Amino acid sequence: MNNKASFKLSHLTYAILAGLLSSNVSAASELQAQESVEVIEVRGIRASTEKSLNTKRFADGVVDSITAQDIGKLPDVTIADSLQRVPGIQIRRNAGEGATINVRGMPQVTTLLNGEQFLSAGSLTKVQPDFTDIPSSLVGAMNVMKSPTADTLAGGISGTVDLQTRKPFDLAEGFTGAASIEAARGSYSKETDPKAMIFAGYNADSFAVLATVSKDEVTLANYRLGATNHGWVGAPQESGNCWYCPQADMNGDGDTNDAEYTYVSYGMVNRFTERERTGANISFQADVSENLELSADVFYTKMDDADRQRGLMADNAWGGHWQWQDQHDPIDRGDILASGHRLYTAQDITLNAPRVVAHSESHTNERQSTNYNVELVYKGTGAFSGKARFITADASRSHTENVAQGYLTNGLAHGLRRNEGNGPIAVNPNGYGPDTIAMRFNFKGEHAMLLPPATLQGETFGSNISRYSVTSTYSENNYDEDASLDIVRLDGEYEFDHTHLNKMTFGIRFGERDISRDQYVLLAPLNNPVGDGSVNVMWKDQGLAAFDTDGSGGTPSASAGDLTMGYDNLITFSSLPEGWVQPVSDFGPISIDSIYFIDPKQLDDPFAFQNKFYPGNIRGTVPGSSYKVTEQTQSVYWRSDFSGENYRANIGFQYIKTDLEIVQNIIGDSICTSCPGSVAEDAGDIITDKSFSDFLPSLNLSVNLSEDVVYRAAWGKTMTKLDLEQIAGGLRISRTRAGEDLAAREGISPDLLIATNATMQGNPDLNPWRAQNTDMAIEWYFSPSAMVSLGIFNIKLDSFIESSIWTQPMADADGVVRREVSVNGLINGQGGTMSGAEFSYQQAFDFLPGVWSGLGAAFNYTYSDSESGRIDLNGDALPLEDNSKESANAVLWYEKSGFQFRLAANYRAKRLAEISVPYGMSDTAIWTEPTTYIDISASYDVQDNFTVFMSGSNLTEEYETNYAQWKDNRISQNIYERRLTFGVRGRW
């Protein structure tokens, strides 16, 4: 498959590299810089602050730093949570934990491990890891480099984060050990989650070794209220010419020139995420000879997680029921639609829901990565010094998704029937119906609520378990990913005895990254109950027929007299095994009468669950979402360092040549019935070879205006590596049941699966993000633990990647093209800017008398304004996605006589979460409202080497609220919990 030449280091290669180094041919960068930075023993808030300021002051460019307060102790619970304290960094949360970061409003951020690329199993195709993968106790420091330097691996547009592990030679001579045990508990999850860390190191002067092992389990509340999917949205127009347009006066005002903004599905979702993390780091260093130092590292992470949800959901069943709203507080947005219709939105709506379900779903991940690093450093007595480095890594991720739809409605309101041989009947015979259910969606208060009627058909709604049945179940979006990484690099340094020119550093690097992805669904073989033949089915929906069992021809349908799937196996909740069904009334801040749900833990194993009801499931390939990519990079760099009485500067370049081999699959004939069109035969390969090169000059200047005041200026070109999924994924077509209204209009079966929209998941013609960055800053270090700085920056985007919408014909499940549908894909955009300013202040108040001398404070504020070149529905310019124009951090701390206390607040202004294109509308901005997170930590040293500690994150139970286009059009919320942690830590 891969025709490119691969490289792997053999024993002979190691010998050649060692020979080159011992003969003084190459030299390493970083040595002089490391020697020039003051070494500080780091324990406690004050010491970590001083170390971080020291790193910033003597850095080669615009850098911010965070240092662990003790072995295995970053300032915050997770790596991303700690990074958000840095000026200009914003984070995105996953189940309340910091997962990814933006630097100056952009997520195109490279993350390095000890100065080089590494693999993170949670984001194999990207250059930024999923920080939830990595236990924070493995990291000793983090540097955020906002201006490029020639010797720093290129890959981030707005910045580079370097995660640094502890090195054995940095330990005191002899044995060093540390351990901690802690327990955490969430305000909603009510689970006690354990975490343990142990560290051991030994430094014998000529050699040293250390090892860190971390293990934790966590259960996180992660509720969802409101619209269940931001992409399932439309503006159905009265008497419009479209498949979703009702041929009626929806609001009863006597005309047909109105449209109503509506989502397909609204719900309240009880969702919990369970994670089990293991991490280990082993490092070895030895003086092989007087001039040679050998280092070796292993960095290992493993995380198993399950995202389990139980949601009460009301939806319009897609086909033919888009006029399902009674808006009680309609807001007239004007005739802003291209069709000329007036658009109305509302926050208090009665949803006349044809379908109400108790939805259970489980997403699981098993991910693991191992990164190996070997370095040989030559520290010569002359002008030359150097380093050879080899990195190899492998990582894997297995992901599953499994769904069970427990119907409370009987299906007749949207024409879904089953046929057991005696004619069509309600698909869920004991469910509520035949009329729609009046579900009240109200977002006028603090939280979104979906309230069912208090009583229905003589009973409390949802209280009768005999009303429920598993009408539909399926497993899709499953995939296996594997990746490998191999890097070899040589770095050299030559020192000059010159008034201004100090040294030149230079190097070459070769890298290869391979990624493969195999996506699949689960298909159950169904035999023709009245004849020969069988078909494979993904959507096991008891209202759909797979065979023409009555011989009438046409699309199989219960209404036409055909037997439906599971015609002999009505799966009622009351018939399920003991313990499978649970009553739930907890939806975070909202509580209602209990609704029955299948325990989503039963769905963790998709094969076991699906085989329980539809035996013999097999993997069905999704060739359009499966691919292989090989990325090879070759780079060289050169850098010169200068200094004088009051300045330091470096100038240089990095040249990178990138070769890509992209192997996509040709989508062949469908291999199933009742499934997406993307589940098909793999009809062969499409191989695309792509090459490009980048020349990236950089300049950094630091001028000491006085003993304590530093002026900085920097300029450079940057680029980021392509997300391999964005260039290799294929076409995915979404389909849904036609329904009776559309069937009558188009003369098709109501059970025909029609094409509604599509996503082009990959575009091999994409080019990387490229930009020119300019920085200026002034920093005043008025004590060893105090600083004030002000900086401005500008990022001029030469090219970037953005989503685009177009229409093209798509076939329905019977292969007939009846309409054009919207296709969402990625293209390159031209132009765009990000500019702003950063202010930072840190100080220890050690000049105060007595106990007050233990106080300290920090504050930073970032303003980052951006333009993406896109406009929203009102014609207003849109910023880059996920950028908050304003963000700030405030920290108050105290450290005295063994007691430490820290109170921290993080603020983000509103951000553009995504751009949605609803049916019948143009670009519609989805915004997330401003958020403020409050965290606390405290500790007390009972003895010099024994500490008790506690921490609290999200003390105010902050949550995220999203609105579409207008602030008074709120659509959804993500609810997170407060977490408290208590523990003990020892050091010896």
Q: Report the biggest beta sheet as strand number plus sense, adding barrel if it closes.
A: 22 strands, antiparallel, barrel
Number of strands: 54
Alpha plus pi helix count: 7
Mean pLDDT: 90
Measured by DSSP, the beta-strand proportion falls in over 45%
Low-pLDDT regions: 1-42
Protein structure class: mainly beta
Distance between the termini: 54 Å
Radius of gyration: 30 Å
Helical coverage, percent range: under 10%
Specify the overall morphology.
Answer: globular
Structure description:
It is a single chain. By secondary structure, this protein is mostly beta strands. The strands form nine sheets. It has a 22-stranded antiparallel β-barrel. Strands 1-5-6-4 form a four-stranded mixed beta sheet. The radius of gyration is 30 Å and the shape is globular. The two termini are 54 Å apart.
